[in-house]
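User: Can you help me understand a structure? I only have the sequence.
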Amino acid sequence: MIRHAAAERCELMVAPAGERLVVRVDDDGRGIPAGGRAGSGIAGMRERVESVGGRLTVAERLGGGTRVLAELPLEAPG
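Assistant: Let's start by predicting it. Here is the structure, written out as tokens:
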């Protein structure tokens, strides 16, 4: 995060939510460039999360920075 975002602070939250595990990472860095595309790091994270039946969102935070939110099933699909 420091290399790409120039963030000074990062907050991690991991908590169960029903039958899912929610993992949230917030930083106070540069945010996502307007019109930018997801880099290979984000694409790789999304691929891994989706491979277990989860969902990944990456968004700019209000006031600056980035939020990465992963919602994962607590039980393996199937």
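Now, to help you interpret it: The chain has a mean pLDDT of 85. The two ends are 34 Å apart (CA to CA). Let me know which part you'd like to focus on.
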